[in-house]
Design a protein that fits this description.
3 domains, alpha+beta, 421 residues, 12 strands, 5-stranded antiparallel sheet, Alpha-Beta Plaits, 7-stranded mixed sheet
Amino acid sequence: MTLPSHIVEMLARIRRRFQNAPLQERLLPSDAEFTTLRPVRNASTASVAKYWQRLRATASQEDQDALADPITMADPGQFSANIENFIGTVKLPVGIIGPLRINGLNAHGDFHVPMATTEAALVASYARGAYAATKSGGISTALLYEGVIRTPAFVFDGLLDAGLFVEWVVREIDALKAAAEATTRFGNLVSVEPMIDNNVVFLVCRYTTGDAAGQNMVTIATNALCEDIAARCPIAMNAWYIEGNFSGDKKASFLGLVTGRGRKVSASVTLSADVVEKTLGTSVKAMLDYGQVANLGSHLSGQLGAQAHFANGLAAFYIATGQDAACVAESAMGITRMEARGDDLFCSVTMPNILVGSVGGGTSLPSQAAGLNVLGLKGAGNGAALAEVAAATCLCGEISIVAAIAAGHFTRAHENLARKR
């Protein structure tokens, strides 16, 4: 068998590098002394100065001034609940799109949506989609379901013990629910679904979390549930773990796509042919033709769901509003649909894993609280509305990118707004 030429060349390059003796020495273990950096949570002017002194070998005073700026250092303690080993804050450009008209069950009105990103052309694209959607009467949104899950795992000697354990859990569900909910004012355990794989049992513990995203909330509640099981269950277990890597926490999974792991939202708008032509610079037919090809590509490549770029809008929205940006890994799953409605174009997104909160996490930090205030959705009572805004924003991005590629404008827009800025 003959290897392709590009593989042969790649192997040759690797071989040449590893034949270099100094390079081989670089890869050997080192026993050079080092000073351990222990995690410290309580930020202060003194602790920040100490860390920057440590960084002097690589970072300059200008670097310190950029991260530990006067506004940040006026009250470094305000960041203590959100980070350890604090040295400053990063400033990201924040743009707005809108007004984005949303006719939702929870979000209702015209919103200016903040988006934090370093990617030129992103805000312009989403703004164009928002303009087209608003000009067409706005986006209809509905929160369909919610339930943040944690999936502890329990290990037994065999299948029989695993089955007996599930039987015990079912009998004790009320007591276990009480143990979990005793840890939180706002969380409710709504279901416990067992999943058996021979001698290992996963318990899919699903919670509502009020207006918070609820990641920490459900972890603490589930730990209390597990400790109650460990203390009272008569079935001998070899081990239990707070998370069995079954929940899809911060990763794309079929479970998340089918059952959801946060707030499931559907958003839709019907764009008139006139809006598509005059606002988006293309035609309904061209968008549907490209959408058919893009849908085929998503299936052939094995995407979980079928969509263009949810992650772009979600990441910018999450960072601007104090959400856990790592949750984009699971939130950016879902389905985009575009269908003809007579001469017009029906566009929708359904997103089963939107993990957002209007309270808790990073939402109380100064810049992030400001982002939520721009939306008018800071604080209690706004979690569901925030999820609907997130889905509507993603729909704007889907409309704009499909139109741009269908019309052949995608590359030109990035050249003009990004490379030639």
